[in-house]
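Re: weekly structure request thread

Next one in the queue (344 aa):
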Amino acid sequence: MVINEDKVRGALFGQGIGDALGLPAEFNSKSALLERMKVWDDEWPNKYRGVRRGSVEGWKAGDWTDDTEQAVAILVAYLGSVDEGRDPADSVELTKVAEKFMQWAIDDGRGMGHLTGQILDNAMFCLMPQVVAEDMWKASGRRSAPNGAVMRTAPMGVLRPLDAAWTAREAAEVAKVTHFDPRCVASAVAVSVTISKLVTGSTIPEAIEAGIAAGREHHPEVEKFARMSLAELDLDEGMEKGRGAPIGYTYKCMGSGFAALREYWRQADEVPGFAFHDGVAQDLFKRTLTQIVMEGGDADTNGAVAGAMLGAFVGYSGIPDWMKDDLLGKNQMEGLYQRLLALR
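Done, posted below.
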């Protein structure tokens, strides 16, 4: 196995692109999106007025949200630890991750989930983040399993992708910084390990099986959702009846990424002479990712996970140029990628 750096770069950019693409569709049902978005051309869809319920003030076309901001925070924490002299083979310092989350919350914090907000409000969070997260989870009756950990987990799959055991262990530990429920942990591990396998040359079916196996170590139900179709996942569940819908469940978000990979693999298999980095491949990336966000619900978060997983397979060169060029955080993401590349 070797690390394909084009795929590493693709996973990072795919995260931000899926997040930005899904933002205008967030909090809408699938039927509402089909009615309102009559045209989808090679531009970010933020221009379609009335698509996203609620205010989008402060967001621009090509912006990513808190999903990618927290993914960036994880990557910055890891790279910062290495800059301070830690061996790249060491564990990610959880207090450093907590500090980066807190810094983001103070500087921006837009889109922060309810659970994450509660945990970051605790005065002890930066000192013992997992203890605070576990206490909060227990206080909730051990029922809370939102998607805030899985949405940001893509960097864990590209830090040391040749070591799947390290990826699984560290993804679990970083997830528990804010989301202690085993379903949240299993989701983050399954996605991270799948990404690590994709960037080191596995096929989509091989990577999916590896991710499911790793996730099962934390919660058995991960397999059920990882194998669901988009129809079965029902990503906009309850949206027709209002915003009290359970659209932010961690397994829904995780499942959308696996469903996207299977759909890409199915369509690519039907194209004679398919080459992964030609125009057909780029169009297929766009169509597959668009299909995910057009399912509605927590569309930016589902898009972030699906985009990262698809990007880990097709690579940076397999993503449409306009998506990469118009991503507002492209320079920041490219800088982080170059820093990561320098550690190899």
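Residues 48-56 have pLDDT under 50 and may be disordered. Residues 250-269 form the longest helix (20 residues).
Next request, please.
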